[in-house]
Structures are given as C-alpha cells and as structure tokens.
Design brief:
globular; mainly alpha
Length: about 150
C-alpha cells in the first residue's frame, strides 16, 4: 500500500478502533499506545484485507498482553521503586513463584511479558513450536495467578 492509502486508513480507522479499545476497557493512553503499535506493525505487512478489523485485533492483543504483563510483573516495579511498597513480603512473592516454575515456563514468561516478544519470536528464540509457546504461557500464567491469588 502506498503512503496516501495508509493516511486514509489512519484517518478513517483510528477514531473507530480507538473508541472500540476504550470500550473494551483500555484507558485512553493504553488504547493510543496499542493502536500506534498496531499501525506500526501494519506498515510492515505485505497485504491486509480489512485494515480496521486487523488493526482492532492487533491493537487489542497488544493491549491485553501489556495488561497481563503489568499485572504479572507489578512486584518487579515495586522492587525498582516505581510504586509505593506494599506491606510485608508481598513484593517478593512473584519472584519466589517464578523460581518455582519449570525452566521452560520461566523462559517463555520472561520472553513474552518482560521482553515483549510475540509467540513467533519466542518460539524462534527458544527453538520450540509456536503452539508450545502458547500452551506454556497459558499454563505458567494460570499457575502464577493461582499461587498468587490473583
């Protein structure tokens, strides 16, 4: 697609997709970040049949991944002093529970949520199948949520 076509898509799709993301629960700043990331990714794609739909799905996935990452790794932010310290030992619980995961689960969680790699990138870097990344991510996240009571 040429630059003018992308400009038209941006002007047409941005307001609708932005409102849809906010309707899904994203804060305005989160929706904007996710949508800009989706547009950036769209510029690298060869062909997109339905740009507004593709942008919505891509931005929604990006926002959800960021939200999960923030929830899972909030204790790390506490350790770095980015937010106020909670009482007692709460700030160490995630790190302790991460150590209890299998090595593969830790690798996948760190690649996906700390480094922000996609499933495809994680699979390529770890030398495993994309489906294995998806299953491992789901299992590890469920285990952490259960152990942390989230």
């Amino acid at each position: 697609m040429d630059r003018s076509a992308w400009q038209r898509i941006y002007e047409d799709a941005y307001p609708r997709v932005y409102r849809a993301l906010v309707a899904m629960g994203a804060r305005p700043d989160e929706a904007e970040d996710a949508l800009h990331d989706a547009f950036e990714r769209a510029l690298r794609e060869v062909r997109i049949e339905r740009p507004a739909g593709w942008l919505f799905v891509t931005a929604l996935r990006r926002w959800r991944r960021a939200r999960i990452r923030a929830r899972l790794f909030r204790p790390l932010d506490l350790l770095r002093g980015r937010v106020a310290d909670p009482p007692g030992e709460d700030r160490m619980m995630l790190l302790e529970e991460m150590q209890r995961l299998s090595e593969r689960q830790r690798q996948v969680i760190v690649a996906r949520y700390v480094l922000g790699l996609s499933q495809e990138e994680t699979a390529a870097q770890l030398g495993i199948a994309r489906g294995t990344v998806a299953a491992t991510t789901s299992q590890a996240a469920a285990t952490l949520r259960r152990r942390l009571g989230s």
